Structures are given as structure tokens and as C-alpha cells.
Amino acid sequence: SSGINAEYGNRGKEVFVIQSGSKRVNNDVFEMLNLVYACKTSCARRVIAVVPYLPYSQQCRMRRRACITSKLIAKMMCNAGINHLITMDLHQREIHGFFDCSVDNLRSSPFLLQHILDTIPDYKESVIIARHPSATRRATSYAERLQVNFAVMHGELKAEEEQEVDGRTSPPLPSVFPQPTPFACSFPMPIPSIQQKIKPSLTLVGTVQDKVAIVLDDIIDDVEPWALLAGFLKQQFSKVEGSEVI
């Protein structure tokens, strides 16, 4: 167990609680809620949470019969006493609607674009790569601002969220549930069974020859997919000298 004891009074003041997610995400969430509730019960006028990386922001849609954990986190934060949230690059803009308080969703793209201009002298010879099809809009936005080409990765690393199978309305796979006993009256056509999705092999849509590859995504919570992607791009560059992956 952990306890919080404020050494200075915050009665009638605006309090900023700074917290973000890490590998110990559940501990971080409860620590933030504990801090916010302590400030609220200490008669703080307003509690402003600064959370650059909102935990569980990827779990913002109903998939099969899973929980929309991002909405649960938003309700817990508001019930704990948060009056305003400052975050950055939410996974989906619809997460705004989960909060009963005001939300500032800041953008990191101006800083990243400036970093590319300052650190890559030949950025005009680069190509912006979307790590999966759902990141195409973000990649095209960067490519238009830098006036360079873009490419898209498609395959086993990540499937597009909008095309994922929703088990709530789809018929079950024949191998999962036994076939029911036939009724006395037969239907004109049998109920078709869903075809299991098979992810295609990793494919690069676009060209990266003689280019500096800049790969984009909004959240990096596991290094293994990025290492596999870098290895795949290096194989694409095997016949070309002087190419880089960033």
C-alpha cells in the first residue's frame, strides 16, 4: 500500500498532476488517481492532469466482446476529480468524448518535422513510410509538409483496425462451436460460416530505393515489430547502397 501526504497546502489553488504511462501502466494509473483524489479532498480549486501518453488509448473501440478500456480510464480520471486534461497525440480523436472534462490534445508533428529538417540534411531524398495502412493519413500529412513521397507497409505486423472481424455480429467459426441439431423445418439456404482471416506476407507499397526511410506511427510500446520492420527494409535496401532507416 502507498499513502500520499502533501507537505504544502493547496486549498483554493490550481494543481498540476504530471503522469504518463510506462511498462508498469496499472501502477501508474492508480498512482495518478490517488494523487488527483488527494488534491481534490484537500480543497484544491482545480486539478489539471498532464498526461503526455494516455494509458490504454489504443483500446478505444469495441472488438468482439472486449472492454473499451480507454473509456473506463476516462471515467475513473473524471470521478477522481480531474477538471482538465492535457495530453498529446491521442490514438483516436473520438477519445475526447469519453471525458466529462475539457481536453487539450496537443500535436507533436511540428517538433518532429523541425527535428527532421535540422538533423537530415538531404531530407528531400527521404520517403515517409506508414507502418500499417491505418497510419496512411498521418504519413501523407508529413509527406505533404516535407514535399516528399510516401509508402505504406502492409502485412503481418498490423492489420487495419477498421477491417478487423467483429465477433459480436459474425457467425462463429465451425471449428469453435459444434453444429446445432437441425430443425424439423429447413431454411432455404444454410447460414454461411465466416472465413478465417489470413494475414498476407509483409509487403511494401511504394519505392524506397536510394531514399532515407522515415517510419511513422503514433505509439511505440514494443520494440520487436520495429526491429522486424527495420530488418525488412534493410533487405529491400540490400541492392542499394547508401540507404538509411530512421
Question: Can you describe what's shown?
Answer:
By secondary structure, the protein is of the alpha/beta class. Helices cover 26% and strands 17% of the residues. The chain contains five helices and nine strands, in the order E-H-E-H-E-E-H-E-H-E-E-E-H-E. A five-stranded mixed sheet has the order 7-6-5-8-9, with helices on both faces. Strands 1-2-3-4 form a four-stranded parallel sheet, covered by helices on one side. Helix 5 links the parallel strand 8 and strand 9. Helix 1 packs parallel to helix 2. The C terminus is likely disordered.
Strands, helices and their partners?
Elements: E1 14-18, H1 25-41, E2 46-51, H2 69-80, E3 84-88, E4 102-106, H3 109-119, E5 126-130, H4 136-146, E6 149-154, E7 203-205, E8 212-216, H5 223-236, E9 244-245
Parallel strand pairs: 1-2, 2-3, 3-4, 5-6, 5-8, 8-9
Antiparallel strand pairs: 6-7
Cα distance spanning the termini: 43 Å
Element pattern in H and E: EHEHEEHEHEEEHE
Mean pLDDT: 76
Helical percentage: 25-40%
Lateral strand order in the biggest sheet: 7-6-5-8-9
- The fraction of residues in strands falls at 15-25%
Query: Uncertain runs with pLDDT below 50, 5 residues or more?
Result: 158-165, 238-245
Class computed from helices, strands and strand pairing = alpha/beta
Shape verdict:
globular
**How many E strands?**
9
The main pleated sheet reads as: 5 strands, mixed
| CA-atom Rg in angstroms | 24 Å
Number of helices: 5
